[in-house]
């Protein structure tokens, strides 16, 4: 056990990429201990990616890349400006609302930071906001990406914990709203403290237009329900509803109706049983292609090809991490390290609330050093038996783990969102880290609320019949 963990930590300190560090330390442990034939390394790594839910990974990544090149980010930004730009500290609120919308398409914090972050930080700096504030609010809002469905971490967690990915998606909706409100309250605090005004004049027509877009999107599922109640088949009702929506959007040229429809289609389709979460990822790609090639006509074959190659590169790195982490996690179990940690935690407490506090500290710490995918793959086999033994709902725990790991993305030494935003804003990593620190307050408050009020996570999946 000490050879496995020690080798991994030494390689990490030497700057070896996390996936290679896990694979190399696992191979070293197998060769020295003889606990299993060395061919097991390849067998377990292959088994780690032989999972149907993992098919969702490349498709969600591709959907996010396609949304970026389709010009959807600019439309989302324009919509958010019309909706909340007139408030004090307006572009800070715009930043958060834009991330909420983009989260419903990308599923990752890094895509949010790289896609919308480039537009938002430049706009905020042009309006006189400090670079530090612009980077801080962008980093905090990027954590919404994997909380509001769809979510790549939820796909990985659902596969590892053997729980419904659809229930995890629904479980992230209310926590995402709570995080949004806390972040907007933080922007309001800074706006009053620094006596900031609005960034766009208040306009009833603009606000009315934004409100109308939201109303149209919310009316869509209601219209489908009414048509079904009137005796129409669900498929026919959806075809008529989407056709009507497209005509309205084309005629009025709304900024973000089609973008806002992405999460409605994904969640609605899974709820109605049209497709699994994995198939929902394919639906997200089809919707992205439709927007870019047909509705907005901003894509070309060249840009689609670039998005595809970027997706292949990202998917390869994610799945390599999954394969390396799967053998590492398996060896932790075989070497009794997982059982020792479980026994140690249960020797401290049998109170589930105390355990959740300890788990938060552990996952936050791990998230600062290990990639999100690797952390989930390693920690779930260790912590899930304790979670089940203490009567904690695994869907609730999945939200807790994901939010902890998202906060870890904002910290050195391996916080990817931190490095992406440092590059976008042309700031040093040290200044970027300091800029993010005040935004840990709303994130930690959200973490405490999600941890100790389970119904924030569980109410919606129970209401929709996806959880007990």
From TrEMBL:
Keywords: Cell inner membrane, Cell membrane, Membrane, Transmembrane, Transmembrane helix, Transport
Membrane topology: Multi-pass membrane protein
Record-annotated TRAP C4-dicarboxylate transport system permease DctM subunit domain positions: 5-456
Transmembrane segments: 47-67, 133-156, 168-190, 210-227, 234-252, 280-298, 318-341, 353-383, 395-422, 434-453
The keyword Iron is assigned to this record: no
Locations listed in the record: Cell inner membrane
Gene Ontology CC terms: plasma membrane
A GO MF term: transmembrane transporter activity
UniProt cross-references to Pfam families, sorted A to Z: DctM (PF06808)
Record flagged with keyword ATP-binding: no
InterPro entries reported for this sequence: DctM, TRAP_DctM
Function statement: Part of the tripartite ATP-independent periplasmic (TRAP) transport system.
Matches recorded under PANTHER family: SIALIC ACID TRAP TRANSPORTER PERMEASE PROTEIN SIAT, SIALIC ACID TRAP TRANSPORTER PERMEASE PROTEIN SIAT-RELATED
Entry protein name: Tripartite ATP-independent transporter DctM subunit
Species this chain originates from: Bradyrhizobium stylosanthis
Lineage, broadest ranks: Bacteria, Pseudomonadati, Pseudomonadota, Alphaproteobacteria, Hyphomicrobiales
